[in-house]
Amino acid sequence: MDEAAQLAALPVLAFQAVLAFARLGAAVMALPGLGEEEVPAAIRLGLGLGLVVMLLPGLTERLPAPPDDAGEAARLILLEVLVGLWLGGLARIVVLAMAVAGQAIALLLGLAQALVPDPALGGMGTATGRFLALAATVLVLGSGLYLLPLRALTDSYALLPPGDPFPAEAGVEAIAAAVAESLALSLRLAAPFVLAAIVINVALGLLARIAPQVQVYFLAIPGQVLLGLALLAALMPPLLGAFGEGARAAFLALPGLR
Question: For the chain, which residues make up each domain, given as ranges?
């Protein structure tokens, strides 16, 4: 290709790069591990641009040429941003299971009053919820699970070609299914603590009936917290293992990988 042909192809290539960045960059802002609030925006922006540089040569045949109408160009870009946020959000919902499980565990352990800032859930959250959310992020990055959503994002160009209407009905159904799966996973993760809370409360109820003169409440709170923290420390390895298996299965079910 001579210099004149290269110059003539630059506007097409620039528009295709913008379209690719609209989907990839929007997804990076929401993907688990890569799009965490703790990661500076400049780094997330750099990750999005890096994905564009790596993937654009293989996507040029699937990306449309720039339209003559500015409104049509804006529509294409907005559709790509929507698709990227949708795909990234589906993966993000899965990882939120750990934060939700941590919230439930804090309630069962009597630690619901100890609140810390939690960007994952917004506003203030419990200490165990924040701890498990960070543990999930470390697991996703350390085990390479983040590669599965990236692969689904790359393969999404075959499933949802740029310019095609966004499948709103299927998109909403996928979000509802992801929320249901995330909630089910969080309940499975918190199940041992539910059982422990039931046993402790039944024991305390029996103690209150047998020895009504004993101030059960003042004895129960410190003991419940200590036993709960000991149980959390003992169950952390299988807890992370169960989350890793559940997250992998959910990531493999993302659109584009099915």
Answer: 3-252
In this predicted model, what pLDDT tens digit does every residue of 3-14 receive, in sequence order?
A: 555 556 677 788
Query: pLDDT tens, 166-224?
Result: 888 888 999 999 999 999 999 999 988 888 888 877 877 777 777 776 676 666 677 77
- Give how far Cα 216 sits from Cα of 206, 227, 248, Å: 10, 16, 44
The burial class, CB within 10 Å (0-12 / 13-18 / 19+), for 108 is buried
Give the H/E segment covering residue 117.
strand 115-117
Q: What residues contact 232, with CB distance under 8 A and at least 6 apart?
A: 105, 109, 128, 193
Q: Is the pTM of this model over 0.85?
A: no
Helical ranges in 29-146 per DSSP H = 41-59, 70-109, 127-143
Q: What is d(CA 104, CA 100) in angstroms, rounded to the nearest whole number?
A: 6
